[in-house]
């Protein structure tokens, strides 16, 4: 079912404005600004250690925002956390499912955390499992699933409360090429068909597609932000890999991966 956009069509799904963060003397994020449009797929591209996970921790309020502002559909994460986070679904890099219970039990527990009544939870669980093509595995013990299947369940869990913005932090780490492609396809479909804004953090260059927005994050700073073609063109690069190397310096050329 196609969901109607929330609020004015021009309101960004996510707006990060001049956010900085330190770990002691080390600067993790330096004056970072970016937007994720409604119904768009935005790739946050950066090497390991670029600051992607720190940014996600600030958006989700795992860390307090000390400098700058973050808004989700216009709601300030710091001053309106309930309204902001109710519209947000997250898939973190680390696995967060209970391996010893069933898929359905995992999702029922998550629904309870969101205050969703049992009858409604059953309806929503059926819907989200169908959306990630896992409806036939609801009774399976999570520990018996493949890593790719677990990722699908984590995406289903993130969608359970019907968010309008979905964050995914390195969601394909450890997956083979086919599983990576399947996860990408599922999430892109969510963005296009259901109007969900997506921020997809990765260090894999080939996970960015021609129709995507791209944010290049390097050593805590945003070096480029825009449509993929614009990012490539403005750097005079031949392609996104070349653009990234030009923006960040050739010393990092071999660190940005293309999965094989």
Descriptive report:
With 260 residues, the protein is an alpha/beta fold. The chain has 2 domains: 8-70 and 168-260, 3-Layer(aba) Sandwich (Rossmann fold); 88-162, Rossmann fold, CATH 3.40.50.300. The chain contains 8 helices and 10 strands. A 6-stranded mixed sheet has the order 6-7-8-3-9-10, sandwiched between helices. The two termini are 35 Å apart. The model is unreliable at 1-7 (pLDDT under 50).
For the biggest sheet, the summary is: 6 strands, mixed
Assign the CATH architecture of the largest domain. Answer: 3-Layer(aba) Sandwich
CATH topology of the largest domain: Rossmann fold
State the fourth-level CATH superfamily of the largest domain: P-loop containing nucleotide triphosphate hydrolases
The ordered string of helix (H) and strand (E) elements is: EEEHEEHEHHHEHEEEHH
Strand order of the largest sheet: 6-7-8-3-9-10
Number of discrete domains: 2
Q: Report the β-strand fraction as a percent range.
A: 15-25%
Low-confidence stretches: 1-7
Shape: globular
- What is the level 1 CATH name of the largest domain? Alpha Beta
Termini separation (Å)?
35 Å
- Helix-and-strand structural type: alpha/beta
Instruction: Compute the average pLDDT.
Output: 90
């Amino acid at each position: 079912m196609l969901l109607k956009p929330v609020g004015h069509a021009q309101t960004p799904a996510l707006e990060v404005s001049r956010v900085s963060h330190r770990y002691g003397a080390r600067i993790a994020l330096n004056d970072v600004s970016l937007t994720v449009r409604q119904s768009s797929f935005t790739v946050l591209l950066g090497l390991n250690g670029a600051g992607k996970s720190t940014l996600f921790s600030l958006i989700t309020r795992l860390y307090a925002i000390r400098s700058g502002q973050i808004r989700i559909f216009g709601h300030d994460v710091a001053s309106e956390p309930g309204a902001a986070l109710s519209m947000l679904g997250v898939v973190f890099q680390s696995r967060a499912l209970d391996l010893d219970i069933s898929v359905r039990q995992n999702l029922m527990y998550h629904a309870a955390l969101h205050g969703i009544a049992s009858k409604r939870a059953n309806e929503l669980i059926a819907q989200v499992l169908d959306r990630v093509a896992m409806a036939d595995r609801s009774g399976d013990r999570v520990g018996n699933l493949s890593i790719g299947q677990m990722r699908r369940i984590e995406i289903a869990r993130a969608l359970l409360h019907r968010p309008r913005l979905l964050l995914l932090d390195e969601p394909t780490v450890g997956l083979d090429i086919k599983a990576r492609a399947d996860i990408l396809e599922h999430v892109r479909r969510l963005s296009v068909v259901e109007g969900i804004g997506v921020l997809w953090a990765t260090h894999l260059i080939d996970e960015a597609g021609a129709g995507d927005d791209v944010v290049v994050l390097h050593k805590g700073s945003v070096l480029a932000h825009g449509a993929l073609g614009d990012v490539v063109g403005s750097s005079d690069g031949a392609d996104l890999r070349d653009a990234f190397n030009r923006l960040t310096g050739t010393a990092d050329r071999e660190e940005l991966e293309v999965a094989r």
